[in-house]
Amino acid sequence: MKPHSGGRLFKCGICSKDFTWSSNLKKHLRVHTGEKPFKCKICSKQFSRSDNLRNHLKIHTGEKPFKCEICSKQFTQSSNLVNHMITHKSKGLIKCKICSKQFSRYSSLSNHLKIHTCKKTFKCNVCSKQFRHSAHLRRHFIIHTGEKLFKCKDCEKQFARSDDLRKHLRVHTGEKPFKCEMCSKKFISSGNLITHMRIHTGEKPFKCKICFKTFSHSGSLNNHLIVHTGEKPFKCIICSEEFSESHSLRRHLIIHTGEKPFKCEICSKQFTKSGSLIHHLRVHTGEKPFKCKFCSKQFTHSGNLNSHMRIHTGEKRFKCNICTKQFSWSDNLTNHLRVHTGEKPFKCEICSKQFSYYNSLRYHLRIHN
Q1: How far, in Å, CA of 346 to CA of 360, rounded?
Q2: Residue 90's pLDDT is what?
Q3: CA-CA distance, 233 to 178, in Å (whole number)?
Q4: Which residue among 49, 127, 211, 226 has its CA within the 20 to 30 Å range from the CA of 307?
Q5: SS3 155
Q6: 3 pLDDT exceeds 70?
Q7: For 109-113, 187-191, 228-232, which range has the lowest pLDDT when averaged over its residues?
């Protein structure tokens, strides 16, 4: 589109922001309306801009046009390459003299140093929690009083802190100021962005103290803990089967509906989940994005890489609660538990003899053959 004539700018009627081009105003309005007219034909994800859709499609195609000239590593987006280049410029990193942690910016180092230098001199009289700044103590104290002074004019919801109200207002405006530099996805809050980044980094900071399984989100850890307690609060209304986690129930319900909304455009195979379709596409592309840092073996799924890594690390995270013997894989622990329980789930259909392990049954069948 051509720019307007006469020197008058195109103004947004919602936030009063000015634009030189009417097309830019049109794109900007999607921030307020939440409109996402560009849809991925593979996984149905929607985008407000066509260039964001083009970048997203590279996830499915495996295309990586941006190449590092130093180590030849390739990336789907130029911003990812820029972030990667910092790893080669080790001289440009700024190191904390106390704990040796490195930063690319002085401002990041300055904020980090407060952990080492600032004392927590402000103490809460109710719960004895301590803070570095009086403002943080005042903000914390609202937890005990239950006071909610900040009210949303759109939905009447009330908040204890002004910044919580400010974040909430983005639900109504559609504003998402925090952008992921790896996949361009946007978020309402910085916390949501930090949590999302773990998809790209693989970081799993929340660890189960019973089986040592790690998780990206605290909520996922809380849901997982139910596995150990035996509690199953999620019940199927159709067949009454019970589940320990809500997503297990959702996955189970598809058995009753038979719905498979995600279709592969190459072989027409259909899937119940978009993630399953993304994984399946690697069968056609041959992509194996997960590489072992020890032996360079590559895998199509991160879970396969994590299992493989235990060969090198010797980690044994699955522990028998009866005899404390440890195993690298959960299925090995499951097989071992039959030593204690006496369970023999594998039955010979010829003579009805039962076995604890499938391999034992297979060996036994040779007698009949």
Answers
A1: 9
A2: 47
A3: 35
A4: 226
A5: coil
A6: no
A7: 109-113
Residues 6 or more apart whose CB falls under 8 angstroms from that of 7 comprise none
- Measured torsion, CA atoms of residues 203, 206, 210, 212, in degrees rounded to the nearest 10: 10
Whole-angstrom Cα distance, residue 226 to residue 233? 9
Residue linked to tokens 């295309």: 63
Structure tokens at 45: 């994800």
User: Using a CB cutoff of 8 Å and minimum separation of 24, what contacts does 342-348 make?
Assistant: none
Provide the residue type at 312 as one letter.
Answer: H
Residue for token digits 């089967």? 241
**What is the three-class DSSP state of 58?**
helix
pLDDT digits (tens, 9 = 90+) for 337-363: 888 999 999 999 999 999 988 888 888
| For residue 89, pLDDT beyond 60 | no
Q: What is the tens place of the pLDDT at every residue in 90-113?
A: 445 677 888 777 776 666 777 777
C-alpha 164/C-alpha 303 separation (Å) is 36
C-alpha pair distances (Å), 319 with each of 211, 316, 331, 343: 7, 8, 12, 19
Higher per-residue pLDDT: 298 or 77 = 298
β-pairing verdict for 270-271 and 262-263: antiparallel
Distance separating alpha carbons of residues 211 and 64, to the nearest angstrom: 38
Render the burial of 177-207: b for 16+ CB within 10 Å, e for the rest. Answer: ebebebbbbbbbbeebbebbeeeeeeeeebe
Q: CA 235, CA 250: separation in Å to the nearest integer?
A: 10
15-to-10, 12, 54, 56 alpha-carbon distances in Å = 12, 6, 28, 29
Token representation of residue 345: 């789930």
CA distance 336 to 38: 52
Residue type, 91: K
From residue 196, give the alpha-carbon distance in Å to each of 22, 192, 239, 273, 301: 33, 6, 35, 19, 18
Q: Could you tell me the two tokens for 132?
A: 């570095």
Instruction: Give 359's contacts (C-beta < 8 A, 6+ positions apart).
Output: none
Tokens for 222, please give them.
């809380």
Find the largest Cα–Cα distance for the chain. Answer: 95
CA 27 from centre of chain? 28
Identify the pLDDT of residue 91: 47
